[in-house]
Design goal:
The complex is a heterodimer of chains A (422) and B (294).
Chain A lengths: L7 H4 L5 E7 L9 E9 L2 E8 L8 E8 L4 E7 L19 E11 L5 E9 L4 E5 L6 E3 L8 E7 L2 E6 L3 E2 L2 E2 L8 E4 L8 E2 L12 E8 L2 E7 L6 E5 L10 E4 L1 H4 L9 E5 L2 E5 L17 E4 L5 E5 L27 E7 L4 E8 L4 E9 L5 E4 L10 E9 L2 E9 L7 E10 L2
Antiparallel strand pairs in A: 1-30, 2-3, 3-4, 4-5, 6-7, 7-8, 8-9, 10-11, 11-14, 12-13, 14-15, 16-17, 17-18, 18-19, 20-21, 21-22, 22-23, 24-25, 25-26, 26-27, 28-29, 29-30
Chain B lengths: L3 E4 L6 H9 L4 E3 L11 H11 L5 H12 L4 H12 L6 H12 L3 E5 L7 H10 L4 E6 L2 H14 L1 H8 L5 H17 L6 E5 H6 L1 H11 L6 H7 L21 H5 L29 H9 L4
Parallel strand pairs in B: 1-3, 1-4, 2-3, 4-5
Classes of the chains: A mainly beta (422), B alpha/beta (294).
Chain lengths: 422, 294
């Protein structure tokens, strides 16, 4: 059993998705900005960007809304005071206090009404924002205490939030004792309750990177740099803390080479999981190519792309016949997954401890045969960093940022709208 | 049929594992040939004679068994002469001779010396670019303790040959780093990694997977054959002029007994004296975790 190398023709990018580039800019705002999160809400596209604010190196988080007809962006929320970078204290290097948007998600209620939920992370004032109309935003606290949330997800009438943990040097770090999820039936009223035991019982389970709902279960992927990521699931019955079942452990038997799983998506009766250490967290010098794994309805898992290996459920050989990083070991992070129903899309990053040197987009219509998508990078792909992938039928949205000056310090947000020929 | 090379550190179950796999009806298990320390048979013999004379035992027993149909003292003497007449042979030709004698069966070879030096791994790949490679691991704490014990047993010989024995942790780390670097360059599926503890505690689960990977039969008869390493012609002490070729403990007791993994942790002080440190280094911890040890 050896995976044969693919022919050059098979690696040629397809043109199954034709992209248009859309600049993300609003009048009167100078300086660079990074796109961090996005969601469709009430048929409008909302993107969260972090602007560098101009010459004083302060940072402002803005929420922008796009009007397709008018082809213009509008700022619907921004942090009221520019937050400067932290000053040097006790010999530590300066770091930004404003980290920007960690999550934007839509929460439906029992009447079918939707609420836009946003997590804004700032060392001084983390905020959870809610909006019913996309115009007015309510900053929530719980008993006067703001909660720094990372990923958010709505499930069974609960809003789940993964606590971002303590911050140091500008990086949201692990929570003491392991990753903690909180859940609330009514975020406006507060009442956040711990939804799991810290770290699911393992203090090395440090950060919850992604959520996904699949066949009546909420799945949470938690990073563990010591033993490899774990995948847990709950039906959220009764009151928190809920009962959780472990579905995967030890990085699906690839151990610390699969330290984290930053992306999940449901496609054709399977839950797809992308591995790799996400941006903002330290990467090992010898990081391996990323993998794509899928969990089937019966709880078994299969390797879609990645390193063949032995496992407690049998020999795992990639069903796509592609090795780590989709046959490119330099692609160390599978950062985004998105399903349109007809197709599944993936974004991979060629990330080293020093930088991201490129990215690739991939598409499949059966979950097994993957083909690269040519993206309109307007220059070398090394300059672009896709951070958000959203798919609708016959439509793909890629949001991210790219270098806009030779030094690489200044970045500008971009959005690609792609029309799929599938 | 392409051969299978087991790459590992010393004291990591390689004798029992290679012999078990070699008992598959479509395979032939070899003792340690130590061929990849040099390019020609003569160079191999000279190097082993200088540094580790018993390292030639496996090759002598193999030639005796395959060329002279027995592993007697006389057959080993004849084997030594046979080798001396072929000093100019490239090591691939030696392997070719063995392969020709065993017919269509898959050769299974393990020589822990191969992984200690990257040039040996490069040589191995140059000669066998399409071979299978099994990266066999054992918890570093158990491995290092075992290395220390064997060093104690052979302390007098070791000091006479090389002075201070090698640091067990360094040996473990060097071998597995070399193997990880080497296997990264291979095609997906050409090399798989397995904890020896898992294989020996659940052979019914992992032996069929190994057979499937190697595209060999994975039926119950084949698995049962692999559970009897003692049936190998090399699973016993050889004649006095070539007694080894495998771990002496295995040669004394080659029967397989399922064994539960002994609990071991990476953290904590060493169970053996070490001059420079009493805990595993960060490099060792990182490599061990990448191999699934905690």
């Amino acid at each position: 059993m050896m995976t044969e190398l693919r022919s050059p023709e098979a690696m040629t990018p397809s043109h199954a998705v034709a992209f248009n580039t859309l600049a993300v800019s609003i009048p009167g705002v100078a300086g660079g900005q990074r796109l961090q999160a996005a969601a469709f809400f009430r048929k409008r596209l909302y993107v969260g960007v972090l602007g560098d604010g101009g010459g004083d190196r302060s940072r402002i988080a803005r929420l922008l809304r796009y009007y397709p007809g008018a082809e213009r962006w509008e700022a619907v929320f921004e942090t009221s005071v520019a937050t400067p970078d932290g000053s040097r204290q006790r010999g530590r290097r300066p770091f930004p206090l404003e980290l920007g948007w960690r999550a934007i998600t839509v929460m439906p209620d029992q009447q079918g009404r939707e609420t836009l939920c946003l997590s804004l992370l700032c060392a001084r004032q983390p905020r959870l924002l809610l909006s019913d109309d996309g115009e007015r935003f309510e900053a929530l606290t719980d008993g006067g205490e703001p909660r720094p949330f990372g990923p958010l997800h709505a499930f069974q009438g609960w809003l789940f939030g993964a606590l971002a943990g303590a911050m140091s040097d500008g990086i949201a770090e692990k929570s003491e004792g392991g990753a903690i999820l909180h859940a609330s039936r009514d975020p406006r009223a507060g009442g956040w309750l711990a939804a799991n035991v810290p770290g699911f019982g393992d203090p090395h389970n440090q950060v919850i990177h992604s959520f996904q709902v699949f066949q009546g279960w909420l799945y949470a992927a938690v990073g563990n740099p010591f033993a490899g990521f774990q995948l847990w699931r709950t039906q959220a019955r009764g009151e928190p803390p809920f009962d959780w079942d472990r579905v995967l452990e030890q990085g699906a038997q690839r151990y610390s080479f699969n330290a984290a799983a930053p992306a999940m998506a449901v496609f054709q009766d399977a839950l797809y999981i992308g591995t790799g250490v996400p941006m903002g967290e330290p990467l090992l010098e010898d990081a391996a190519g990323c993998e794509l794994i899928r969990v089937l309805p019966d709880g078994r898992w299969e390797l879609v792309t990645g390193q063949p290996r032995f496992s407690p459920i049998g020999l795992q050989v990639p069903v796509s016949t592609r090795g780590p990083g989709f046959d490119d070991p330099a692609q160390t992070v599978l950062s985004c997954l998105a399903s349109s129903g007809d197709a599944l899309y993936a974004a991979t990053l060629a990330r080293t401890p020093e930088a991201v040197s490129g990215f690739k987009l991939w598409q499949t219509v059966d979950g097994e045969q993957w083909r690269p998508i040519a993206a309109p990078t307007d220059g070398p792909s090394a300059a672009c960093l896709p951070r958000v992938l959203m798919a609708l039928p016959k439509f793909l949205f890629v949001g991210g940022d790219r270098c806009s000056d030779p030094t690489g310090d200044r970045r500008e947000a971009f959005v690609w709208f792609g029309k799929s020929e599938i | 049929m392409q051969p299978l090379f087991i790459l590992t550190c010393m004291r990591s179950f390689s004798s029992v594992v290679s012999t078990m796999l070699g008992q598959h009806p479509q395979a032939y298990g070899l003792p340690e040939l130590n061929l990849f320390v040099a390019d020609t048979l003569g160079e191999v013999m000279d190097r082993l004679h200088t540094h580790r004379p018993q390292g030639l035992n496996g090759l002598l027993r193999t030639v005796a068994e395959l060329e002279y149909r027995e592993q007697s003292q006389e057959a080993v003497r004849q084997a030594r002469a046979w080798l001396a007449q072929r000093r100019q042979w490239p090591i691939q030709q030696v392997f070719g001779f063995v392969a020709q004698r065993v017919g269509t069966r898959m050769l299974v070879e393990k020589s822990p010396s191969t992984a200690l030096d990257e040039t040996r791994l490069i040589r191995l790949r140059r000669h066998f670019p399409d071979a299978y490679f099994l990266h066999l691991t054992r918890h570093p704490r158990a491995t290092c303790k075992s290395i220390h014990e064997i060093q104690q047993k052979t302390a007098i010989l070791a000091e006479r040959r090389t002075g201070t024995p090698a640091n067990p942790e360094s040996l473990w780390l060097r071998a597995h780093r070399n193997i990880l670097r080497f296997t990264r360059q291979l095609r997906p599926g050409q090399s798989l990694c397995l904890q020896g503890e898992l294989l020996l505690s659940r052979p019914e689960l992992y032996l069929p997977q190994i057979a499937e990977w190697l595209e060999l039969r994975a039926d119950p008869d084949a698995v049962d054959a692999m559970l009897h390493p003692e049936r190998s012609p090399y699973a016993r002490l050889g004649p006095p002029n070539a007694p080894f070729g495998h771990d002496p403990n295995f040669l004394h007791n080659p029967r397989f007994e399922k064994r539960a993994p002994r609990p071991a942790r990476l953290e904590g002080p060493f169970d053996w004296p070490a001059p420079d440190a009493d805990h595993f280094s960060r490099a060792t911890l990182k490599t061990a975790r990448a191999l699934g040890y905690q």
